[in-house]
Amino acid sequence: MDAETRLKRLRFRAWHRGTREADMLVGGFFDTYSESWTKEDVDLFEVLIEEADVDILAWAMDMADVPERYQGPMMTAMKKLDYIPVAR
Predict the structure, then answer these.
(1) CA pseudo-torsion sign 37, 41, 47, 53
(2) pTM recorded for the entire structure
C-alpha cells in the first residue's frame, strides 16, 4: 500500500474510534502531527491505535503509566493535549 493511502486509512481510523472523546483525542492528534511523521512514526501510530480507547485516553491524560513501547516523543506530544479544540 502506498504511503498516501496508508495515511488516509489511518486518519479514518483515528477519527472513528467509537467515542467522541477518543475521536477528538486520537483524530486531533493525527491531524496535528501526522504530516511531520517519519515512516517509523507512522508504524508506531498504527500499532498505538489498536490499543483500547480507555488506555490511550488514560496515557494521554497521565492517568496511567504509558507502556515502554509507547514512551517517547509521540506520547510526549500526545500528552500536551493542545491539539483538541475547545468547545464553546
Answers:
(1) negative
(2) 0.91
